[in-house]
Amino acid sequence: MAVVSSGHRPNLQNPSICIRKGKPYHFPATISLRKKAVVKTPYPLCCLNNSDSSSTQTAAEEALLAKNDLLDLIAGEERGVKTQENPLKRMQIIKAIEAMRVIGKNSTTTSSALLSDTWRMLWTTEKEQLFIIKNAYLFGDTRAGDVLQVIDVDAGVLNNVITFPPSGVFFVRSSIEIVSPQRVNFRFTSAVLRGENWEFPLPPFGRGW
């Protein structure tokens, strides 16, 4: 799953939007009473609150408006499942992602402090993931739960996780390499589909950024 967090032109073939899971960092969009959402974008707002620069404040406001616009667009899209049948909505979301890329083109987004964490996926165009989310019933009497990315920049590891409550999981391990201040390359290394009393290894394939 390629996450949009690059000041390079993003890979808009398969972008994904994620929030930091359980940590109130960066963007102030509330997802619960005590947790705040973070769209992984190329503009780190965490450093802007203490700035006295009017131009920086204006840029922060612009980024916040763009982020809110993006969150509004993906609301109710069932993590991208519904977007598959709506080319116009997909185009609007891609344009919103591109707008955030332009705003953050000069920022650094690949440091361990910003990127290493557990992220919850909100939206994607990645067909394999959307198939699994939509057809979770094929793996038993279940539906897709959290879809997560666990990133450890220092260890060079990215794990994609799709949960099937109460005990199922699709787990894909990847290696990552920081290649610029705004770009991370990844390569899948292993995959496994697990149920309560069974496990089915799958051949890993694919690379991207």
Automatic annotation (TrEMBL):
Keyword Transit peptide on entry: yes
Q: Which domain of life is it from?
A: Eukaryota
Query: What keywords does the record list, in alphabetical order?
Result: Plastid, Transit peptide
Query: What does the UniProt entry say about where the protein is found?
Result: Plastid
- Tell me which residues make up the Plastid lipid-associated protein/fibrillin conserved domain: 66-194
* One Gene Ontology cellular component: plastid
Q: Which InterPro entries match?
A: PAP, PAP/fibrillin_dom
Q: What is its main location?
A: plastid
> What protein is this chain from?
Plastid lipid-associated protein/fibrillin conserved domain-containing protein
Q: What is the lineage of its organism?
A: Eukaryota, Viridiplantae, Streptophyta, Embryophyta, Tracheophyta
